[in-house]
TrEMBL record:
Residues 1-17 form the signal peptide. It comes from the Bacteria. The keyword Protease applies. One of its GO terms (molecular function) is metallodipeptidase activity. This is Membrane dipeptidase. The keyword Cytoplasm does not apply. Transmembrane segments: none annotated. Keywords: Dipeptidase, Hydrolase, Protease, Signal. PROSITE patterns: RENAL_DIPEPTIDASE_1 (PS00869), RENAL_DIPEPTIDASE_2 (PS51365). InterPro entries: Dipep_AS, Metal_Hydrolase, Pept_M19. The lineage of its organism: Bacteria, Pseudomonadati, Acidobacteriota, Terriglobia, Terriglobales. One of its GO terms (biological process) is proteolysis. It comes from Silvibacterium bohemicum. Its EC number is 3.4.13.19. CDD domains: rDP_like (cd01301).
Amino acid sequence: MKKLAAILIATSLSLTAQTRNAPVNPKTAEAIHNSAIVIDTHADTPQRMLDENYDLADPLNGGQLNFESAKKGNLGAEFFSIWVQPELYKDHEARRTLELIDSVYQAAAEHPDKMEMAFTADDIEKAHRDHKLAALMGIEGGHSIENSLGLLRDYYRLGVRYMTLTWSNSLDWANSSGDIGKPGAPHNPDGLTPFGKEVVLEMNRLGMMVDISHVADDTFWAAIKTSKAPVIASHSAARALNDAPRNMTDEMLHAVAKNGGVVQVNYYSGFLSAAYREAASAQEAEVKQAIADFKAKYAREGKQVAVGDLERLQRSYADRIPRPPFSLLIDHIDHIAKVAGVDHVGLGSDFDGVYGQVPQGLDSPADLPKITAALLERGYSAEDCRKILGGNLLRVMRDVERVSREMQSGK
C-alpha cells in the first residue's frame, strides 16, 4: 500500500511539472547540469573500438561518443554496450562478447587519467570525484550466454552489470519484440521458459540488472513477475507517443514504477517519431536488398563483413530521412515521468548504435546540457533533473546490489 501511495504521489508531482515556464537562465541550467552525475546506459562504441581500433581520445570522425564530448556534456558514467551481431558471429557469440569486453578494458588501461572501470554505484561516485568517466558494461542480448549460467557468471566477474534479455532476435528461452510472428522465430508462450526464469533469478543473485529493452511484451511481464530486484529498460521510449514494438506501453511504465525500476529513454529517431519510423519502414525492403547484395559481394571476394560495414550502408539510407526536432526526446522523457513518476526515468542514448539518426541538435554527449535546460523550461526542479540525469539509475543499482547481498546471505 505504501508503494502504491508513493507511486501516486510521484505521478501527481510529475503532472505538475509539465507546465512550460519562462525561459531558464542558461547559467542556471548549466550549473544544475554540472551538479549532477550524468549516467547514460547504452552506447555501442565498443564495436568501433574493436573493429576500427577507434581511440576515445580521437575526434568523433562520424561517431557520437569520445572523451572530449563526454567532458563537454558532463557525462559521468557510460554503460558500454556489449552487443554481438547474431548472424555475423553465429556459433562464436561468447568469443565476440569477450573481445568486446576486452576493448573497454583496453580503453581504460590506455587512458587511466580519463576513464576508470566501475562496477558499483559507489564506483561511479568515486570516478566522479576523480573527474574521470566511469566505464561500465551491459550485454545486449542473452544469446551471448549461449544458454550457459556459467558464462553469465563469468561475464559478471568480468564487470558486466546488466544484460538485455534479448536483442532483436528471439531465443529459445525468451521472446524478442524484433521478430514477433516471423516464420521460424522461436516463441515461448509463457514469455520466459523455466531456464529463462533461472537466468533472471541468477542475475538477481549476482547483482546484474535485468534489462527488458528489446523483449516482447509477454517476456516483459514474465520478467517483471520473476525478478526479485528492480528492472531497467536501458534504451526504450514511450509507445503512447510512437507505437513501435520496442517502446513501452503506459501499463508497462506503471509496472516498472511498481517494481522500483527505471526506463532510460532512447534517443533513436525511429523510436521517438512516428513519422520517422514510417519513413524508415518504407525503406526497409530496399535496405534489406542492399545488405544482401553487399554480403554476397563480400562472399564472392572472400572477405568478412564487419558490423561497421553494415552500419555505414544502413546510415546511407537513414540519412535520407529528415531528423525530428529535439523536443520529441523531451516529450518522451516527460511522458514517462508523467505516467511512471519522475523517480523512474533516465537516459539511454544508443549513441554509436543508431547510424547517427538522433533528433536535431543532439549529436553527442556534448549536447546533454540541452536536455537539462529543456526539462527546467517544462517546470522540472533541479532535483528532478538530477534524478533523471543519473540519480534514478544510481538508486536502482544500489537496490539491485542490496537484493544480491540478501539472496547470497540466504535472507
